[in-house]
Backbone:
């Protein structure tokens, strides 16, 4: 989906292939895209949020492995992110510190199905908030409820210690049994209130044209 200003309300995007490797439900490469009351269903690589400014609100995203991935500047506001198996919720792919991209999960809820801990693999790995698909990946969880299945360290370096110096993973006022600031990977960040304000959708997605995604979404039913 490449159309600038694309908006969807009450639409389901699904890839029913299951655990067969990459199976994208939707690829979004559009600036000023809004998704409201939508569902994104898949297993691996469900939602390819890859380019432009994107705003997801009051929606549901389901998968197991890297199922929100790409290099958009995207805010997920009041969404449910449901892990159906052990893996990683996000795999953001910012390639330099100068890029204004990244993912913000705001006022949301992470849930998990029985498969996350219901198998030997699940009991070993649980769920992690993200890993860097590219070295400068940026993901922030704010005011989001996290389940017990989220591993204490929260974040993974994708097997490359060097990524710990470049990836920027942060949290602010998360809650629930999976919120564990003291146990998080030491190279991740706990945000101050001032830092968190920069990731509000009206600020993070504003751009040079001063786009207000919250106001735009409010115009949809």
Residues:
């Amino acid at each position: 989906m490449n159309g600038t200003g694309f908006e969807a309300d009450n639409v389901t995007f699904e890839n029913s292939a299951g655990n067969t490797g990459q199976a994208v439900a939707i690829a979004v490469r559009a600036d000023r895209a809004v998704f409201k009351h939508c569902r994104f269903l898949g297993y691996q690589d469900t939602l390819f949020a890859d380019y432009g400014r994107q705003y997801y609100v009051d929606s549901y995203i389901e998968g197991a492995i890297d199922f929100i991935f790409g290099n958009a500047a995207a805010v997920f506001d009041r969404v449910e992110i449901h892990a159906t198996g052990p893996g990683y919720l996000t795999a953001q792919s910012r390639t330099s510190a100068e890029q204004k991209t990244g993912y913000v999960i705001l006022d949301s809820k992470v849930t998990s199905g029985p498969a996350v801990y219901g198998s030997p693999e699940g009991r070993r790995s649980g769920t992690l908030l993200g890993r860097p698909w590219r070295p400068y990946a940026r993901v922030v969880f704010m005011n989001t409820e996290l389940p017990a299945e989220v591993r204490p360290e929260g974040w993974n370096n994708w097997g490359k210690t060097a990524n710990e110096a470049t990836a920027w993973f942060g949290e602010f006022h998360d809650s629930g049994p999976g919120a564990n600031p003291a146990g998080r990977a030491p190279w991740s960040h706990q945000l101050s209130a001032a830092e968190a304000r920069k990731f509000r959708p009206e600020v993070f997605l504003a751009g040079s044209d001063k786009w207000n995604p919250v106001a735009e979404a409010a115009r949809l039913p």
Remarks:
- The helical segments are 120-125, 193-197, 201-204, 213-218.
- Residues 120-125 form the longest helix (6 residues).
